[in-house]
Amino acid sequence: MARDIAATTALVSRVLQEWLGFADSEVKPESRLEEDLGADSLDLLELVMHFEDTLGITIEDEHVENIKTVQQVVDYLVVH
Would you call 43 a catalytic residue per the annotation? Predict the structure, then answer.
């Protein structure tokens, strides 16, 4: 089931701002989760679990390894 891209973008941005302590203007689609936003492996695991719980989905480990940017998070969540 495809999700609304605007709502998903807003959700991802809000969660990243809250969990990683960034202002809205600092979370951009091209922002890299680890390099630009400073997410470590524990942050990424917690984010995955949060999105799984919030959206009622399962994110496979092999997909997580390929998600590097904010836009890739949004794209993944929109189609899964």
Answer: no
